[in-house]
């Protein structure tokens, strides 16, 4: 099997020839360290790391001020605070061919070798980041219509993008909408159901209309949300953060319904642990969670700039050593 076939088989809950290796993001700092050069093509990262997927970005802008660190922009101050700020919520024209050009070129270069994901959002993360959690909480009480308007505009933008993805030629959709910390969700199940789920269901319907498989991502402990989220109909759940979420229990409980993805610990193993600890964790995940298929290995978030390079190398080596079925 090639990488594309491997990923699509896992998302169908089948057992491919080996456990696929995917990542939702990799820091350029780590990529440069692994490749030993400053300028490179995405395919070179796949070859060096053994990754089975690539990411075509369709992420809406966060309306905020930023600060840069290690080549990554982080939100410093949200800018959507009141209705007076709604004129700042300007999103790219979804009819502009330039919006799809990079993804189309990635698909052409790949020629079906790697599984290309459309990395998107459903509207939750852009709303929380553009409003800030404090302003979001106040608006829920003072002006819930403002929140609904912002979530709705982001959802509408994603739905319009989804209408073009079949033409682009991507292989699956990967939505990234963080809604939880390690300690628990950022908001209550009631807020999820009343504020976010109506728009998330609209986006989910548009994803299903494409016929493409779909991975849902949220960091942290989403267990209080899980039953609601599963009604959306996604095919894979990522990143299943260790500690708050028990991937071995989830394999028993929902492994027959969704492909489980991730769970190599970022808080200790990849960042502070020793290479042998990385190998042991990778081996355990593949042997237990990978059994029978329906599992793709990755970090429990992304390969960040503060991961130890030797630990990332140990992860790559362990996946190659233990990943083959049979």
If you had to describe this structure to a student in words, what would you say it looks like?
Strand 8 (259-261), helix 12 and strand 9 (295-296) form a beta-alpha-beta unit. This protein has helices at 3-11, 28-35, 42-49, 98-110, 124-131, 133-142, 144-162, 165-168, 189-210, 226-230, 247-254, 275-289, 309-322, and strands spanning 53-57, 64-69, 72-78, 115-120, 172-176, 214-217, 236-238, 259-261, 295-296. The protein starts with a helix and ends with a helix. It is α/β, with parallel strands linked by helices. The mean pLDDT is 97. The radius of gyration is 19 Å and the shape is globular. It folds into two domains: 1-51 and 247-326, no CATH class; 53-238, TIM Barrel (Alpha-Beta Barrel). It is 44% helix and 13% strand. The relative contact order is 0.15. It has a seven-stranded parallel β-sheet. A two-stranded antiparallel ribbon has the order 2-3. The longest helix has 22 residues, at 189-210.
**What's the pLDDT, averaged over the residues?**
97
Count the E strands. Answer: 9
What is the helix fraction of residues, given as a range? 40-55%
Assess the beta-strand content as a share of residues.
Answer: 5-15%
Strand order, main sheet: write it out: 1-4-5-6-7-8-9
Broad shape: globular
Task: Name the helix and strand elements from N-terminus to C-terminus, one letter apiece.
Answer: HHHEEEHEHHHHEHEHEHEHEH
